[in-house]
Amino acid sequence: MATYRRRQLVAMRQALDEARFGTARTLNLRASLPSVREATTRTEAWLRQRQVENAGEVLIITGRGRGSPDGISPVREAVEKLLGSLRRRGVVAEHREHTPGSFIVRLAPTSALWESPARRREAHRPPPLADPPSLLALEPETRELLRELAIRSLESLGVRDVSSHLEGEMLKQFGALAAGLPASVDRDARLRAAIARAIEEYDTGR
Q: How far is the first Cα of the chain from the last one, in angstroms, to the nearest whole number?
């Protein structure tokens, strides 16, 4: 009887999680049984993409490790450590245990990517995807939006001579946003959407 009730509670919790997060905001690592390295690589890429898509809160399911020799999931431990690292790098705002085998993660605003200080001990830092050799390689509409974002960022820092720092700020922001975007035919459109959301963050004070 107790086992039946426990299964009912688990099923109810899963249904509530599906209603709250849906498939787009849920990363289920337990389903594919990845190695620790595969899990952390996949988790970081997924979180960076969800951040630039302004996903807000997301759910990561790691499993609790019942099948592990010591009863502790190495994937869960590695993901929790990664979440702390990504918090210092401006990707994660906070995370908390949801169940013994899952975490709820609140993603940081995209502006935190270039506002967070660099950490010497952060060794694992994936490079931006397909940086252009110059800003001229971007479509004019994308470049103009990126320029607006760079101006807002510099002004928020109190920089007076914006023009002399503008190109460097644009390249820095492009690199930060591009790292969270998958390679696809509509990548430029996704980049513009991410830039527009970052501009909105500055305009609304988030």
A: 49
Q: What is the mean pLDDT of residues 154-174?
A: 89
Residue whose pair of structure tokens reads 């906070």 in the numeric block:
94
Q: Which domains does the chain have, with CATH numbers?
A: 2-113 (3.30.1370.110), 128-204 (no CATH)
**Under 8 Å CB-to-CB from 65, ≥6 apart: which residues?**
71, 72, 73, 74, 75, 76, 101
Measured between alpha carbons, how far is 90 from 95 in angstroms, rounded to an integer? 13
Vertex 44, ends 51 and 21: CA angle to 5°?
55
Q: How far is 30 from 105, CA to CA, in rounded Å?
A: 17
d(Cα 72, Cα 35) in Å, to the nearest integer?
Answer: 14
Q: Please give the backbone phi and psi of residue 36, each rounded to the nearest 5 degrees, phi first.
A: -60, -45
**Residues 179-183, mean pLDDT to the nearest whole number:** 82
Residue with tokens 């490790």: 65
User: What is the pTM for the complete model shown?
Assistant: 0.80
